[in-house]
Amino acid sequence: ATPLAVLAGAQRLGGYGMLLRSDDALERAAEVDTVILDKTGTLTTGQMTLTGLWPETPEVLQMVGSLEIASEHPIATAVSKYVEQTGTPLRPIANFSEEPGWGVAGELDNHHLRIGALEGHEQLDDAMAERVATWRDEGRTIAKLEVDGHVRAILSVGDQLRAQAREAISQLKAQGLAIWMATGDSPEAAALVANQVGIEHYLSRQKPLDKAALVEKLEAEGHHVAFVGDGINDSPALVKAHLGIAMGTGSDIAIEAGHLTLTRPNLMSLVDTLTTSKQVTRIIK
Ligand code: ADP
Ligand code: MG
């Protein structure tokens, strides 16, 4: 391999919004035949807005605001922004903890609070159940606030597809790559985004280790997998993948776990990267 060609390739990738974090990233990229994308923050912008909160009482606003302020998850940012606008005073939370792929927990006035994914088996009153059904139909991401093990409130957030997400997926498919989506979100929210961008193979309610297990399974079948993700919840899969690609807008932990960083908020740079890597390594060989 001529170092000059590698350098030229790296420079060209830089122009496409790719940052190489490992020496063999280009060679790895050239071998990729399967791409798995995370949903929230990868296919979508992750700049979520709170679209529903029920019941919206001062206590509920204070509990969700006080707990989510400590998290960097896109849902937490959406909740914090909303609660701040209401002028609700926040309170310190004791024993805060975060479980990637699920949510956050902590204590307030000796009550145990948790905010995280609505799993579907919870006891909800009629008013809550009605709202959840509507939000599901809209493909919203839905979370619950639990106080001492009881659902006290539900909330929904909305997100937007990244620029040219559908176009990027269609070009990746045209190159003969197999495309998957893996998300920690619900089946309904997963289906909406998968249909919008044109992905047929998708898995929902995937915990961080489930995403890594999917990578492992496809690689055991002989595929070279690129995993594209943005969150702490994606880092086990980014590490396991033949090529880990982190969104530059994502968490530092995800960026450190990847071989490559996408520095532009547009998914066409993913297409450019995989194409260029194949061209460059062909020149080197
Ligand atoms: P994705 O795989 O799409 O990036 P995550 O794995 O980060 O999604 O999150 C999965 C689900 O867990 C979310 O859809 C949400 O319901 C819940 N969740 C995770 N973190 C939080 C949080 N800080 N607040 C509320 N809900 C959360
Ligand atoms: Mg994500």
Automatic annotation (TrEMBL):
Superkingdom as given in the UniProt entry: Bacteria
Subcellular location: Cell membrane; Endomembrane system
Homology family: Belongs to the cation transport ATPase (P-type) (TC 3.A.3) family. Type IB subfamily.
Name the UniProt record assigns to this protein: P-type Cu(+) transporter
Residue numbers of the full-length protein present here: 455 to 739 of 814
